[in-house]
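Students often ask why inverse folding is considered easier than folding. One informal answer: many sequences map to the same fold, so there is more than one right answer. In these notes we will look at a single instance of the problem. The structure comes first.
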């Protein structure tokens, strides 16, 4: 009987983590470049009352008698499907059409990666994120530049008063990974490289590495499907209630057993 209490408790704990994941997805449904998470479960250790394959008679073997001891959350998988594209008409908003990531220089000197392309120039003209982290390779746009254009191949150019030919200010490079689902989330729309993701492969947009191309004046939204998340929330709630019911039933059975000895 004691197994039922702990087994049900493990199910309640796992569904609580599931609901936490769903809540985070819904909270970031409007976050640019956000990638939703999906919680993965695994069963726990089994108690072998009769080992499968053990001799039952001289001619037969037993199918076994194993009692499971519950479930637990094993991992959160990052779903890397693309989000919807929203037109902003801001020349410094950039969407990636493909699998690439923007490369960002963090304040501690490390490189992070993001799908969020809402950049803006500093007072020195350097393109940075909303948190002020610069884009890599560094792109600096002169203060007097006009009609700034970012091509689908990452070339940043614009016109300078007094010059007949448009000037180029640099080229945006993108990075891709063998397993982008293995990236580590850092917050702030940033990811970090891990052993699971593999080393980054950098290339200019439109290259042969699959990084994709750029679209100026657009932002990629979150890939969270609100309807699907509500369905997952309902399923998590029902599973939690079912495990809670098992706890109540096991408690009632204990109460009846205790009443027999009075």
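Output (designed amino acids):
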């Amino acid at each position: 009987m004691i197994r039922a209490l702990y087994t049900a408790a493990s199910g309640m704990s796992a569904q609580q983590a599931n609901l936490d994941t769903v809540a985070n997805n819904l909270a970031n449904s409007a976050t640019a470049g956000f990638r939703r998470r999906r919680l993965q479960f695994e069963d726990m250790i089994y108690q072998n009352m009769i080992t499968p394959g053990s001799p039952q008679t001289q001619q037969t073997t037993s199918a076994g008698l194993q009692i499971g001891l519950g479930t637990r959350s094993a991992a959160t998988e990052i779903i890397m499907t693309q989000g919807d594209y929203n037109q902003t008409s801001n020349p410094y908003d950039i969407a990636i059409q493909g699998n690439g990531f923007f490369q960002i220089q963090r304040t501690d000197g490390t490189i992070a990666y993001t799908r969020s392309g809402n950049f803006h120039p500093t007072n020195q003209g350097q393109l940075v994120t909303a948190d002020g982290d610069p884009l890599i390779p560094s792109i600096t746009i002169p203060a007097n530049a006009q009609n700034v254009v970012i091509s689908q191949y990452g070339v940043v150019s614009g016109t300078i008063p007094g010059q007949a030919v448009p000037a180029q200010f640099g080229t945006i490079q993108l990075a891709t990974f063998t397993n982008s689902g293995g990236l580590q989330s850092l917050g702030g729309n940033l990811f970090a490289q891990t052993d699971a993701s593999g080393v980054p492969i950098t290339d200019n947009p439109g290259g042969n590495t699959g990084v994709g191309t750029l679209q100026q004046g657009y932002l990629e939204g979150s890939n969270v499907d609100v309807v699907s998340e509500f369905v997952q929330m309902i399923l998590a709630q029902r599973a939690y209630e079912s495990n809670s019911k098992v706890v109540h039933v096991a408690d009632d059975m204990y109460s009846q057993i205790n009443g027999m000895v009075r």
